[in-house]
Amino acid sequence: MRAFEFMKDQVIKVKETDSVRSVIEKFIEHGISGLPVVNEANEIVAYISDGDIMRYIGKHKDIFIDTIFFVDVIKGDDINFEERLKKVLDLNVTEIAKKTVLTIPWNEEIENIAALLGKKQIKKLPVVRKGVLVGIISRGDVIRHSFKSVMGN
User: pTM of the prediction?
Assistant: First the structure.
């Protein structure tokens, strides 16, 4: 079985020009914890997860974060949690999203997809065809489709 046979082709995503606020809204609306970030050509430029956001809203002491905004904001404890949340919401998604994104080709075999999800300990893999986002596959998708025929369903 290949990716295009069982991937979800209606991908919830955000544009590279969107704010973290729009990411949070999609997380809440769809009950998800990660989204691909795409450009105007629907090419993946980043991936944002709830973990990426957690790193910015948590309390930090004596650390350097590679964003000028946060070097100023997080020095010491002079900003409260609610203020930090408000500032994070207005950030551009690409300021905190991961720029290196694992993807799989649309015709990748399910065994290789399972191996990659397991080895990298990630929840979802964007599916691309000719560099363009065409779907997404989760660990649950692989489990459901892998065992469907074996279990007689």
Answer: 0.82
Question: Cα dihedral angle (116, 122, 123, 129), rounded to 10 degrees?
Answer: -50
Q: Which domain holds residue 29?
A: 3-147
Q: In which band, very low, low, confident or very high, does the pLDDT at 133 lie, cut at 50, 70 and 90?
A: very high
- 63 located within any domain: yes
Q: Tokens 């991937």, residue?
A: 7
CATH number at residue 16: 3.10.580.10
- What is the per-residue DSSP string for the chain? -BHHHH-BSS---EETT-BHHHHHHHHHHHT-SEEEEE-TTS-EEEEEEHHHHHHHHS---S---SSHHHHHHHSTT-S-HHHHHHHHHTSBGGGTSBS----EETT-BHHHHHHHHHHHT-SEEEEEETTEEEEEEEHHHHHHHHHTTTTT-
Tens digits of residue pLDDT in 43-74: 999 999 999 998 888 765 444 444 544 544 44
